[in-house]
From TrEMBL:
Gene3D superfamilies: 3.30.450.40, Winged helix-like DNA-binding domain superfamily/Winged helix DNA-binding domain (1.10.10.10). One of its GO terms (molecular function) is DNA binding. Residues 74-257 form the IclR-ED domain. PROSITE patterns: HTH_ICLR, ICLR_ED. This is IclR family transcriptional regulator. Keywords: DNA-binding, Transcription, Transcription regulation. InterPro entries: GAF-like_dom_sf, HTH_MetabolicPath_Reg, Tscrpt_reg_IclR_C, Tscrpt_reg_IclR_N, WH-like_DNA-bd_sf, WH_DNA-bd_sf. GO terms for biological process: negative regulation of DNA-templated transcription.
Amino acid sequence: MAEQDARKYLIPGLERGLNILMEISRNHGEMSFADICNKVDVPKATVYRAIQTLEYMGFIQRHPSTGLYSLGVNVLRLGFEYVASLDVVQVGQPVIEQLRDSTGCSSHIAIRDGQDVIYVARVSAANATIRRVSVGTRLPVHRTSLGRMLLTGLTREAFDELYPQDDLPDNSPGSPGTREALWNLVQEDRQRGYVIGESYFQFGISSIVYPLFNHDAEVEAVVSIMVPVHEIPPEDRDRLRALVGEAAETISGLMGYRGNAPVLKARP
């Protein structure tokens, strides 16, 4: 009885159209008009009108040679827009928890806000003794390995807008003192694809950082681990780096990134 009550509010034409989309999706390829009619079990004239509507709106497409129907670009666009709407913390939190477990190191996700790095997600290692950062902590972009990785998504024009002065603020020992020095470091980081910062911001703390790309191949955020040593032992370096890289690839994929060669795009 409850199902009957629910069905009386359904729109038959919309239901038929969605059923057609789901059947084509289940088929994992292309379907003929006859196959679609057999699957949805409604009059051919009704199926024809639904197909014409879906094709007009770009949700299905008809192959010009074979006449077979497949999903159209608007179905893909809906999926990508949904993925793109997911927050990096929402999709990344369980991944950095796994990263913490596999590396034994505290793991983080951070974003850039102007000249600041902001930690937006963090999980601590069980034996962590260093608790310098927490969610919401801000650090200078140019003085941190996370910040340098975040800058790899900027064009030179956007970079110069972010740092209009030749001299950088807070020129502490070990950090770049000029805009040009920072730019050169960032280009090296971009070419390498990751940053290993050993005692870069604080002596005795090392980090491994990878970028996170969104569906537009922009650097949306970074994922990192904090290693409580001033230099990462050579025997651990490759293993830890590979684990962070895998986590970055997973999170980027969950945010809709598809590809191996990021496109350099400026972000505000």
